[in-house]
Amino acid sequence: MKPLSPPSRQFRDQRRQMTLFLTNSMGGKKQLFVPHDPQEVRMYVCGPTVYNYAHIGNARPAVVFDILVRVLERHFGRVIYARNLTDVDDKINAAAAEAGVPMSAITERFTAAYHADMAALGVRPPVIEPKVTDHIPQIIDLTGRLLAAGHAYEAEGHVLYHVPSFPDYGALSRRRRSEMIAGARVEVAPFKRDPADFVLWKPSDDAQPGWDSPWGRGRPGWHIECSAMIEHHLGNPIDIHGGGMDLQFPHHENEIAQGTRARFWIHNGFVTVDGRKMSKSLGNVLLMRDLLVQAPGEAVRLALLSAHYRQPLGWTAQTLPQAVKTLSRLYAVIGDGPEDVRLTKDSPLLARFRAALDDDLSTPAALAELFTLAEAAKVVDAGLRPRYIAALVEAGAELGLLQKTERQWRAELAICCAGGADVARIEALHIERSAARARQDFASADRIRDELVALGVAVEDRSAAEQGT
């Protein structure tokens, strides 16, 4: 990794023209985003612990930071995006023991499932996807350096970080010490010097995964893993560190104590189901694999973008059907796709849409601009309509949406929402209905529309003039 260099004069001049603002959790204010290197943004996002199938709460940060990468690429070009996989954890070990299989069998299975779910959502793979088990030497090295610097100590086979050694602890979450101790749900251990101290390295018995270290056979604590992988792959400091709001404390607070530095800390809000937090005890955990049977991944993605990323996302029984209906209307405008129309980089048709995303990733405002473009495409002069459709598709690309034709969308929707109904039958009904409308047999057209709706396929009509453009 090349060393960071001071911004050039050209970049300082360019900075005055920048318009991307993001809310920095360190301080809680919206700030102009400026990377250290004008040609490259370095971003790390905490990924999943791969011991079970991904749920909608795991999917939200993946989609949010996928959008952020797209916006950053528009502004700065190159983005080195790292999102880790935690593949050593007590939950993984418990799952492996229960199934009577090696730990790797659990992690490989659920890593593959996670990748499949994210691909269905249109989430692009990160540039770097480090696994904890591939970075044990780096974790041991960082732990040793924290010991040498007086920030950590050994006790009964453990290495613990001594929180009072870092006076700025709590700056990110802005919590009082009593709140932090309670919020961390710290393990009570007689060998701790302070209740807030947390584990960097812990001993492993014969039934637990372990690696040799200067402190005996053991395994890393959770927080040290990300700090070591960030330092190894991206250097220190980085431009952006992201994750869910639940990681702000204690995980990211502990990373800062361990030495991780980021210009911006960015966190997405929780997903609630019918107004309640997801939990196994309530039986309301929504797994991605189940949602993807109900609707195409693009609809799930749209639903995840319907609320501002920093706000809670309230999921109800109507969330997914509404997203399907919205996409069907937009694809009805796109039809067979845009003609070969080239929009300039600063096309005024895209200005309001991009301004919305540049204002702290305001996806609700950006989606509103999509709808405005779609409505305008219906009423503008036929000669202008291809430009509006091209703008709609280009804007959709930045959101990871609307990259199919209407026909492709209908086929995908038929498979998901019609329980595997015959796609050829769906297509035949559309053709039959179009012919009925062309000969002004509206009674037959209405009957066929009702049949399509019964199959779970949304239908939106366009005028003959619109169909001909």
Indicate the overall shape.
elongated
Going by CATH, the architecture of the largest domain would be 3-Layer(aba) Sandwich
* Largest sheet data: 4 strands, parallel
CATH C-level of the largest domain: Alpha Beta
Content of β-strand: 5-15%
Q: Write out the strand line-up for the largest beta sheet, numbering strands in chain order.
A: 4-3-9-10
Helical amount: 40-55%
Overall number of domains:
3
H/I helix tally: 18
Write down the Rg.
25 Å
List low-confidence stretches.
1-8, 10-16, 463-469
Report on the structure:
The longest helix is centred in the first third of the chain and has 21 residues, at 56-76. The strands form four sheets. Strands 4-3-9-10 form a four-stranded parallel β-sheet, with helices on both faces. The protein is of the alpha/beta class and 469 residues long. It folds into three domains: 39-277, Rossmann fold; 318-405, Four Helix Bundle (Hemerythrin (Met), subunit A), CATH 1.20.120; 407-467, no CATH class. The protein is 47% helix and 13% strand. Residues 1-8, 10-16 and 463-469 have low confidence and may be disordered. A hairpin with a 4-residue loop joins strand 1 and strand 2. The protein contains 18 helices and 13 strands.
